[in-house]
Specification:
CATH architecture of the largest domain: 3-Layer(aba) Sandwich
Shape: elongated
Structural class: alpha/beta
CATH class of the largest domain: Alpha Beta
Radius of gyration: 22 Å
Number of helices: 7
Helix content: 25-40%
Strand content: 25-35%
CATH superfamily of the largest domain: Formyl transferase, N-terminal domain
Strand order of the largest sheet: 3-2-1-4-5-7-8
Distance between the termini: 59 Å
Number of domains: 2
Order of helices and strands: EHEHEHEHEEHEEHEHEEEEE
Oligomer: single chain
Length: 291
C-alpha cells in the first residue's frame, strides 16, 4: 500500500483526512498549521507523524528531509510548497484544487466563480509543479453552480467531493492506472487571494454583477458591504426586484424600504437587499444613497 504524506489545513483538510482514515489509506505523515486543531487531534488519536508550521522554515525543512513516502497529497494547505518537498515522493505529488483547471488558478476559486457568474465549477486533482496550479490534470469532477449558491454553499459541496475525488485518485495510483492530461495554458485564468476589505460594492455595476458579488461573500463569509454616510452596512442577500425608477436617478439610490430590507437602483434594474448588518444604528429612508 502506498505511503501517503498529507498536507492539509482547516475543516476541508480535516474531513478529507477523516475519510482517508476510514478507508484505511496509509497516511504516515501529516503537515498542517498550528490552528488546524481537528487535524492535529485526528493525527494524535491515530498515532500519525505530525509536523506543524511553515514547511519553508529551517526546522521543518530538516524534518521533511528525513521523510520517505510514495504519494504527496495537498488539500486546502495554507503554505507554499517548496520544490524539495514536491520532489520528495517516489510516485506523485498531487494537489486538489477547487475549480475546473486551467480556469481559476489561484486562491478562493469558488468565490471568484460566483462573482463572475459561472454556472458550473468543479474539483481538480493535478500534479504539483513550481508554477501554481499548472501541473498535469489526473482527475476532475464537474458540478453545477445553482442560482442561489453562496461561497459557503460551494464549500459544503467541496466537503463531499474532495474525499470522493481523492478516493478515486488513490485507487488509480494503487492500480497504476493514473492518466496525466496536460493543461492548456492558453486557457488558464488566475485569481488572487481575497480579504474582508475587498467586499466593497460598486453601484455602477450591473444588477447581476452586484447580486453575484453579494452571494459569493455571504454569511458566514465576511460579506459584501456598502456605506451610508459613514456607517458600514454588510449585505448578505440580494434578489432582483421589478420596482421602476427614473434612469437619471443615481445608481445606489434607495428607492424604497420594506421592513428591514431596502430596494436600491443599479445601472440596469432594482435589487432588494436583505439580511443587512449595520456597524451603528441608522434610519434608512428612500432617496438616501449608498456609497
Amino acid at each position: 500500500m502506498n505511503r501517503i504524506c498529507l498536507l492539509a489545513s482547516g475543516k476541508l483538510g480535516a474531513i478529507t483526512l477523516q475519510k482517508m482514515l476510514r478507508n484505511n489509506h496509509n497516511v504516515q505523515t501529516v503537515l498542517t498549521n498550528t490552528k488546524s486543531n481537528e487535524i492535529i487531534q485526528l493525527c494524535q488519536s491515530h498515532n500519525i507523524h505530525l509536523l506543524l508550521g511553515n514547511p519553508r522554515s529551517e526546522q521543518m525543512n530538516t524534518s521533511i528531509q528525513e521523510l520517505s513516502f510514495d504519494v504527496l497529497l495537498s488539500v486546502n494547505y495554507l503554505y507554499i510548497i517548496n520544490e524539495n518537498l514536491i520532489e520528495k515522493p517516489k510516485k506523485y505529488a498531487i494537489n486538489i484544487h477547487g475549480s475546473l483547471l486551467p480556469r481559476y488558478r489561484g486562491r478562493t476559486p469558488h468565490v471568484w466563480s460566483i462573482i463572475n457568474g459561472e454556472t458550473k465549477t468543479g474539483v481538480t486533482a493535478h500534479i504539483i509543479t513550481p508554477e501554481v496550479d499548472a501541473g498535469d490534470i489526473v482527475s476532475q469532477i464537474e458540478f453545477k453552480i445553482e442560482e442561489n449558491d453562496t461561497g459557503a454553499d460551494l464549500l459544503k459541496k467541496y466537503e463531499l467531493l474532495y474525499p470522493s475525488l481523492i478516493e478515486q485518485l488513490l485507487t488509480s495510483i494503487d492500480n497504476d492506472s493514473i492518466i496525466r492530461r496536460p493543461q492548456n495554458h492558453e486557457q488558464a485564468t488566475y485569481y488572487g487571494a481575497r480579504t474582508p476589505d475587498d467586499g466593497h460594492i460598486n453601484w455602477q455595476w450591473s444588477k447581476e454583477r452586484i447580486r453575484n458579488w453579494i452571494r459569493a461573500q455571504a454569511h458566514p463569509y465576511p460579506g459584501a458591504f456598502t456605506f451610508l454616510d459613514d456607517i458600514k452596512i454588510k449585505v448578505h442577500k440580494a434578489t432582483f426586484h421589478n420596482m421602476g425608477y427614473d434612469y437619471r436617478t443615481p445608481n445606489g439610490t434607495i428607492l424604497n424600504t420594506l421592513n428591514q430590507d431596502v430596494i436600491v437602483k443599479t445601472t440596469n434594474g432594482a435589487l432588494l437587499l436583505s439580511q443587512l448588518q449595520y456597524d451603528a444604528p441608522i434610519s434608512i429612508k428612500p432617496n438616501m444613497k449608498f456609497l
